[in-house]
Write a structure and sequence with these properties.
heterodimer, A: 89 residues, mainly alpha, 0% strand, B: 197 residues, alpha+beta, Arc Repressor Mutant, subunit A, three-stranded antiparallel β-sheet
Chain lengths: 89, 197
């Protein structure tokens, strides 16, 4: 049971951070008309899509992506590092 | 004289506060505004006249009081300028150019303290959007703002939001990963080393 809640927490945090990073990167690429920033937006879109699928999987009990908590922790570290590197003061 | 006038236009905080208050509470009269903003009446009147002269606000007599209203919504051109004013580096360059018209590229680099390549990147954007124009004299390039009055008026109404500062930091961080930027930075470091040797 605990395993389920930990997975859900990690997935929700990862999805939230990806959504925030996607919003900021999309606005940046739109304002600066920069291809590099647009590519970064695509990367964050992938993270967001993955996070959304994982959330839906957990809530509605079906399976498209197989993921364990260790891989989720790695994803979360990546996205948190990117968040602190690029957005936070 | 011109510089002094432009410097006046860049006294942002007080005027921005007044302008924001008028847009939020249109129709307030002087005393109400002074009370709300906790500002001496004489200072407020001075800034109100200034904003009125620049067509940012308008005054209407209602028999007893003079009430103040915002004049206009932001147009397409103003939006274009505003989008650049919302970015930290272009904003710093614009403010520097407003105070120092016809500044050279190297002077701008020194002022904003960023690599020449990054400065050129931002200046190119300003020239492309027709906010600034460049004048080449010999080997050096000078820059000047095209409509200084309009730009400084927009600076008064400019307001930074969370998204804007996040976008600034995001763009600054990622664009620094470019090979061109790294190359220039290495060159700059080598140059500095050479100066000491």
């Amino acid at each position: 049971m605990w395993d389920y809640y930990i997975s859900l927490f990690l997935t929700v945090v990862m999805t939230g951070l990806s959504a925030l990073l996607l919003l900021v990167s999309t606005v940046s690429s739109y304002r600066l008309r920069n291809t590099k920033l647009a590519l970064i937006s695509i990367a964050f879109t992938c993270f967001l899509v993955k996070g959304l699928i994982l959330c839906l999987q957990m809530l509605f009990h079906f399976q498209i992506i197989q993921q364990n908590n260790i891989v989720l922790v790695f994803d979360l570290i990546i996205i948190t590092a990117l968040y602190f590197a690029a957005i936070k003061d | 004289m011109i510089r002094r006038r432009e410097k006046d236009a860049l006294e942002l905080e007080t005027r921005r506060k007044i302008y924001r208050c008028i847009t939020k509470f249109p129709g307030l009269h002087e005393r109400e505004l002074a009370k709300k903003l906790e500002m001496p009446l004489s200072t407020l009147v001075y800034h109100l006249h200034y904003l009125e002269k620049r067509d940012l606000i308008m005054a209407k007599e209602d028999g007893r009081y003079t009430r103040y209203y915002p004049t206009k919504k932001i147009g397409a051109r103003a939006k274009e300028i505003m989008s650049l004013l919302r970015q930290k580096m272009p904003r710093r360059i614009i403010m520097f150019l407003l105070l120092h018209p016809n500044a050279y590229h190297r002077e701008i680099c020194e002022e904003v303290d960023i690599a020449p390549s990054t400065t050129s990147f931002h200046l190119k954007k300003l020239v492309e959007t027709n906010i600034a124009k460049k004048v080449t004299i010999g080997k050096e390039t000078m820059y000047v703002i095209n409509e200084p009055e309009a730009v400084s008026d927009l600076l008064i109404t400019y307001k930074e939001s969370f998204l804007d500062s996040a976008v600034d930091r995001f763009a600054d961080t990622w664009l620094k990963f470019g090979p061109q930027y790294i190359k220039k930075k290495t060159e700059k470091k080598d140059e500095e080393k050479g100066r000491f040797l």
